[in-house]
């Protein structure tokens, strides 16, 4: 006979900024489209959340030339925020995305403070559950990552967005910031309800046959297992710096990877590139987290945390 603690089913649900997720596994922005692309490839309703692909107020065609390039244990991308624009998203994509079941997070980018604010206004009037502010995209020429590299720039966009944003606000951080802790603190001081980290790491590749950089923009964003130790270290370090929930991502491909982030203090995880090679990865990760909880007598997701805030 098992004792009471062992027989209680683990609770996978987590709450972030007042929003309940059925489990801590969320599809990362830009790697899951608007959900429909993965129809039939996994149990989408079993995900904790879906972070939709990056949106801007006006539609964007994205970057020309090569957009994806495989590297050892990683993937370089230079998509350039191709998207239909926020109004078209709300009209044509959101009803279907909502109907899938998981928490819906809109990922918002912009080329200026005004564009970010307008985007936040439009999304606030929609049925999305949360907004993730992307101040960390390395693949656009104006805005994007520039806002995420230092505390003053981050504050200059988070504060006005917060003022018009009626939804819980996640700010997505760039690993390129020389002082990420300062950026994180500025985001929280100016109204971020949660932080997600990390976006891709800037990298490049050269096509040796053509004797030129692979990407039209020269640099691109590196994702996948190659960046996981960097992402994990950043979550570990930021945990002591801010008192809002952290959502960890970067190279998570299996349950053990996700557990590392939860142990480092993350309240939830996002999974991006892993879904390209294994569309069922997120279902397997959620199931693996649950098995780990049963085997190790962990009752809640928070129970993974091996950190204490100081
Ligand atoms: C093809 C591709 C497109 C992406 N588009 C976005 C985006 O629109 N907005 C965003 O915040 N992050 C975007 N990202 C970054 C991912 O959400 C994630 O932060 C990064 O890939 C690290 O996670 P991973 O290693 O699990 O993929 C994109 C990543 C990839 C690979």
SSE inventory with pairings:
Blueprint: H1 4-7, E1 14-16, E2 19-21, E3 25-27, E4 49-51, E5 68-71, E6 74-77, H2 86-99, E7 103-108, H3 113-124, E8 130-134, H4 151-164, E9 169-172, H5 180-189, E10 194-197, E11 201-204, E12 206-207, E13 212-213, E14 219-223, H6 228-239, E15 246-248, H7 255-263, E16 268-271, H8 274-277, H9 281-296
Parallel strand pairs: 3-4, 3-16, 4-7, 7-8, 8-9, 9-10, 10-15, 15-16
Antiparallel strand pairs: 1-2, 5-6, 6-14, 11-14, 12-13
Helix pairs in contact: 3-4, 4-5, 7-9
The chain binds flavin mononucleotide.
List bound small molecules. Answer: flavin mononucleotide
| Whole-number mean pLDDT | 94
Distance between the termini: 41 Å
Strand order of the largest sheet: 3-4-7-8-9-10-15-16
Q: Into how many domains do the coordinates divide?
A: 1
Order of helices and strands: HEEEEEEHEHEHEHEEEEEHEHEHH
Class computed from helices, strands and strand pairing: alpha/beta
Radius of gyration: 19 Å
Low-confidence sequence ranges: 1-5
* Strand percentage: 15-25%
What is the CATH homology-level superfamily? Aldolase class I
Shape: globular
**Amount of helix:** 25-40%
CATH class: Alpha Beta
- Determine the number of helices (DSSP H or I, runs of at least 4 residues): 9
Known CATH architecture: Alpha-Beta Barrel
Q: What would the CATH topology be?
A: TIM Barrel
Structure, described:
- The structure is a single chain.
- With 310 residues, this protein is of the alpha/beta class.
- The chain has one domain (4-59, 84-199, 226-304): Alpha-Beta Barrel (TIM Barrel), CATH 3.20.20.
- Helix content is 31%, strand content 19%.
- It has nine helices and 16 strands.
- It has helices at 4-7, 86-99, 113-124, 151-164, 180-189, 228-239, 255-263, 274-277, 281-296; strands spanning 14-16, 19-21, 25-27, 49-51, 68-71, 74-77, 103-108, 130-134, 169-172, 194-197, 201-204, 206-207, 212-213, 219-223, 246-248, 268-271.
- The strands form four sheets. The chain has an eight-stranded parallel barrel, surrounded by five helices.
- Helix 5 (180-189) links the parallel strand 9 and strand 10 (194-197).
- It is globular.
- The N and C termini lie far apart (41 Å).
- Mean pLDDT is 94; it is low at 1-5.
- The structure holds flavin mononucleotide.
- Residues 28-31, 53-54, 75, 77, 79, 81, 107, 134, 137, 172, 199-200, 223-224, 227, 249-252, 271-274 line the site of flavin mononucleotide.
């Amino acid at each position: 006979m098992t004792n009471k603690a062992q027989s209680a089913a683990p609770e996978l649900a987590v709450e972030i900024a007042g929003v309940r997720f059925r489990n801590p596994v969320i599809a990362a922005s830009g790697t899951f489209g608007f959900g429909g692309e993965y129809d039939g490839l996994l149990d989408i309703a079993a995900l904790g959340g879906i972070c939709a692909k990056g949106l801007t107020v006006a539609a964007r065609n994205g970057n020309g030339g090569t957009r994806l390039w495989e590297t050892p244990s990683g993937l370089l991308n230079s998509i350039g925020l191709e998207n239909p624009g926020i109004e078209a998203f709300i009209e044509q994509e959101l009803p279907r995305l909502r109907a899938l079941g998981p928490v819906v997070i809109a990922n918002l980018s912009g080329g200026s403070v005004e564009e970010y604010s307008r985007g936040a206004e439009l999304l606030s009037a929609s049925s999305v559950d949360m907004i993730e502010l992307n101040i960390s995209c390395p693949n656009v020429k104006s805005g994007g990552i520039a806002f995420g590299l230092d505390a003053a720039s981050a504050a200059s966009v988070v504060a006005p967005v917060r003022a018009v944003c009626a939804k819980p606000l996640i700010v997505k951080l760039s690993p390129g910031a020389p002082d990420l802790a300062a950026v994180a603190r500025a985001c929280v001081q100016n109204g971020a309800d949660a932080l997600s980290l990390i976006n891709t790491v800037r990298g490049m590749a050269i096509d040796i046959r053509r004797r030129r950089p692979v990407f039209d923009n020269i640099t691109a964003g590196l994702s996948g297992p190659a960046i996981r130790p960097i992402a994990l270290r950043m979550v570990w370090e930021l945990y002591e710096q801010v008192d809002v929930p952290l959502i960890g991502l970067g190279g998570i491909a299996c349950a053990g990877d996700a557990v590392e982030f939860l142990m480092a203090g993350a309240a939830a995880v996002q999974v991006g590139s892993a879904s390209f090679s294994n569309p069922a990865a997120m279902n397997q990760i959620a199931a693996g987290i649950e098995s780990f909880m049963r085997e190790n007598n962990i009752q809640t997701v928070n129970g993974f945390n091996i950190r204490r805030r100081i």
